[in-house]
Amino acid sequence: MKALYNGLNIQDLKTQHPSDIAEVINELNQKERIIAFLLLPGHLKAEVFTYFSHTVQEEILKELGSKETAEILENMAPDDRTEIFENFPDLLIKESINLLSDEEKRIALNLLGYPEKSIARVMTPYYIQAKKGWTVKQAMQNIRRYGKKAETLNHVYIVDKENKLVDDIRIGKLLMADEEQTMDSLMDYQFVSLTTTMTREEAIEHFDKYDRAVMPVVSESGVLVGIVTHDDIFDEIERRDTEDIQKFGGLEALDLSYTDTPLLSLVRKRASVLIILFLGEMLTASAMGYFEDELEKAVVLALFIPLIISSGGNSGSQAATLIVRAMAIKELYLKDWWYVMRKEVLSGLLLGLILGVIGFIRIMVWQQAGLYDYGPYAHLIGLTIGFSLVGIVLWGTLSGSMIPFLLHKLGLDPATSSAPFVATLVDVTGLVIYFTIAAALLSGTLL
Q1: CBS domain location, by residue (predicted)?
Q2: Hey, which residues does 417 pair with through a beta bridge?
Q3: Which of 45, 131, 150, 324 sits at 20 to 30 Å (Cα–Cα) from 268?
Q4: DSSP helix/strand/coil, 397
Q5: How many other C-beta atoms lie within 10 A of the C-beta of residue 248?
């Protein structure tokens, strides 16, 4: 049997999970990857294909003939197929859709017709439904008839004559019922659903709130049109969290994965934010220029500038991280800003006091040990550093915690209050605080 990679052959791969098969094939070079994929059994191709990156998927489809492409797309779950089409060039989408059967083409076009970020884009139209007047026996017959194609059999969805969703019944309840009972006798008319116009972010909140593994999707008029399963929601959560982490790291969110993003696109996404931060940091130089006379008189103050501004930036980044995450998982809401401010004022004071004491002790120890001569006013320099750290850490903590609330109030994503952005803000304002305190404590001595 032809070896594929690291001694594995086709027979070995057939026994593995599709995700593991895709991982093995993905390690091959382009030519070997195409051959290995073509050698897979027909029923595995569609499953394995969904686990490839968008770049590899496009590469494979371009190399395959129309028959092989049609077979793969025809056998894929509609939601997985829609996700693939979202990242394909328009021409390839058109060519691919035209290869589908009339029924699958209708489903594909219907899903692509919904707004890009709507939950309807990731739903599947393959589920089990029953009429409220049916008996349990009729419902079970319907399950046997269509169950193989359904994405999940967790629930049977009950619809009225107009196909509007009126209830959902767990399959376990159906199995335990007498076969002559009507579906209406098993219903409690208590169900939760998503609407086609709902965003994926809102859908994630519904899954979390109601702790469901699958949820039905209805039109605005209540007509049942599909279901969304937990694995689709997990994918959306991963995308959302990845986007937030990238924004918080100080860059625009990537449209594709890191490995699929072209070099120039990656540079553009990072450069825009770096330029803004660089222009912001220029204000640091302006602030230092404003206090040039103080620096000339007390050059020793310059030694502690990195210490001062980094402490403020670090405290701000910590606070921003905590608040953004708490808002993301619904621990905090906009109305909680005053509670957060009070808590962060105390946190900032205590943290600043801890660092301030350490800073003061460090200067006095160095002075007494002869490691550095700060002159006759070493104690005043120590107090300047100590008080400056208290003020700057407090300011950094307040800035980092309040900026996410401000952005949320303005209708922006709190995650854009990135750690670099907060650090840059505190760098500039921290210098003002530092030299203002220095001027107050050292006036008449060094200044």
Answers
A1: 187-243
A2: none
A3: 324
A4: helix
A5: 24
Residues 6 or more apart from 371 whose CB is under 8 A from it? 365
- CA 374, 379, 384, 385 torsion-angle sign: positive
| CATH class for the domain made up of 3-113 | mainly alpha
Q: Determine contact, residues 272/252, Cβ cutoff 8 Å.
A: yes
Tokens of 340: 């957060």
Q: Which fold has domain 129-238?
A: CBS-domain (3.10.580)
Q: How many residues does the chain have?
A: 447
What are the tens digits of pLDDT across the range 398-444? 999 999 899 888 887 787 766 777 878 888 888 888 888 888 888 76
Give the separation between CA 434 and CA 389, rounded to whole angstroms: 8
21-to-46, 47, 214 alpha-carbon distances in Å: 12, 10, 27
- Per residue in 205-241, pLDDT (tens digit) is 888 888 888 999 998 888 898 898 888 888 788 777 7
- Token digits of residue 148: 């193989």
Looking at the domain 263-442, which fold is it?
Answer: Tetracycline Repressor; domain 2 (1.10.357)
7 in helix, strand or coil? Answer: coil
On whether the CB atoms of residues 145 and 206 are closer than 8 A, the answer is no
The answer to whether 430 and 396 are in contact (CB under 8 A) is yes
